[in-house]
Amino acid sequence: MAGAAFAVADCTKEGKNHLHHGVVSEGSLKVGDLVAPQVDDARRQAIALNHSATHLLHEALRIVLGSHVQQKGSLNDAERLRFDFSHFEAVTAEQLAEVELIVNDQIRANTDVVTRVMDIDAARATGAAALFGEKYDETVRVLSMGGEFSVELCGGTHAARTGDIALLKVTSEGGVASGVRRIEAVTGAGALDWLNETDSKVGQISALVKGNRDSVVEKVQALSDRNRQLEKELEQLKVKLAASQGSDLISTAVDIKGIKVLAAQLEGVEPKALRDTIDQLKNKLGSGVVVLAATGDDKIALAAGVTKDLIGKVKAGDLIRDLTAKIGGKGGGRPDFAQGGGTDLAALPAALESVTALVDAAL
Q1: If 118 and its partner were Cys, which of 8, 122, 264, 363 is the partner (CB 3.0–4.6 Å)?
Q2: Structural domain boundaries of the chain?
Q3: Distances (CA, A) of 172 to 11, 175, 184, 200, 202
Q4: pLDDT greater than 90 at residue 35
């Protein structure tokens, strides 16, 4: 129809009719108007390459992983391919590399992609793979690639030769459901773009670590090892800081009915350092109750310790449950040690001040 355009976004099948879905992007259309279809050749070719690659990928997976592999779904667009298949565990890096090698060997062989139309019984006799649960007409289209390497029933658009695909590069593999894995990959120009982008990132990383492509792995490994060492040293310093602050707090312990009670917030201390600090303070007090708090990332960490001679009277778990309720959180633990947390930073000072009252009530 002159002066009108209909942009097709999807195509579905209803019976023997193919329905095109989309929007009128120019002019107007009415029932009975004649339209001339025009295909985006570049986009169609990119989709065809990805589609053909899924057939090769399917067979390669069966070779590497086993004959139990069956297609459970797929998506082929101009940018990438997605292939879902039955398998009971993650595909290892070595297995993925082998699958890639097999597919790319078939691509480099540059064999004809052959289509034959035949009745369904003759097609089954060829051993052509069919999708489980799919309904087929009496006459079907059988597509062969690499001679007899891949033979499947398929009515889609495909490359003319396997070499048209140029290259397949797997970009991800993961689970999508119980017993179903998913591979995503790129082919042709998309694969070249992916490799160029990866090469660019390697170059950027090499520059950051003052290395080159040959030395970048060793440089990054050295940085990673150094980072782990620094993290250990920092952790040790934080533990020492917590212990130092704890020692300074001994003099602030108060006496409640003959029991020493210490409650305080430590600054710049990691939550996981609280336990060691409480153990040190309990040893220094000899007999008593210690409650410490630390904050970070808008969260509060609380820990309480009670010396063994007092757990018949005061229980750390009870203290933590009462205190965390005051700061919008929860916690618990053993009679001699318990921990928890919350998020109400403004309520923390009052919660710590209430420790003496809670101990007094327990006694």
Answers
A1: 122
A2: 5-38, 43-207, 236-362
A3: 28, 10, 5, 19, 18
A4: no
